[in-house]
Structure formats: C-alpha cells, structure tokens
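re: ur question from earlier - yeah i can do the single chain one, its not a big deal. heres the input i used so u can compare w yours
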Amino acid sequence: MARDKENRLTKRELVSQVAEHLGYTQKEVTTVVQGMLDAIVDSLAEGERLEIRNFGVFEVKLREARTCRNPRTGESVEVGDQRIVTFRPGKALKEWVQTGEMNTGFGQAALDPEGKSQESSQSADDSSA
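and the output i got, formated as tokens:
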C-alpha cells in the first residue's frame, strides 16, 4: 500500500486495510470507523475520559490562562483558559510500537469475515474432529 511521503496513514488507507483484512466492503468499514471517531469526539466534547484497554486513554484537560509572547513582534499576549485533548498510550501499545509485534488478539481481527469469533470457530472445529 502506498503511503504519503511523510509515512502517514490516512483515514482512507486505514479503511482500505481494515476492509481487506476483515473481508468487508470499504463502505461498511467507513461507516464503522466514522461512527467510532464521532463517538470519541462526542465523549471528549462532553469532558468524558475515554479508555480503550491496551491502546490508551483520551482525556480533556484544562490549560490555565497564561501570558505568551508573539514570536514575530515579541509583544506579550494574554491567552485564556483552553480545553485540550491529551492521549496517553497504554502499556501494550507502547510495547507493540517498540517491538513491532502484537502478542495478543487486541489490534488483530477478533472476527472472521462471517462474523464468528476466531475462538468459537476453533472450538467448533475441535469438537467436530
């Protein structure tokens, strides 16, 4: 898959990868991805903390008013309180980024294209043998 020259993954590329990996259409995956992003934005806008186990935590924090300096003019500028979004990666995500390997089911397809969990598919295969 071709990436931008700055090694970015766009939403379109993410949708394409997920659709290919799970066997769904790009339209179906786009609906799910956009729905997830909308839910994250909505919860952050309401000031909620969003925790995704093994991935990380999104939080809204208050940055208090402060005096800054305009870099062009050197003039002091008062900046009011601001709500900012922070992300703190989880332990597993940090490990995956460092090693390049995912050693759990998180981040990998938990469902096969027919919608059955891989575990239940395996146990059904085992019981029929």
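The two ends are 39 Å apart (CA to CA). not sure if urs matches, ping me
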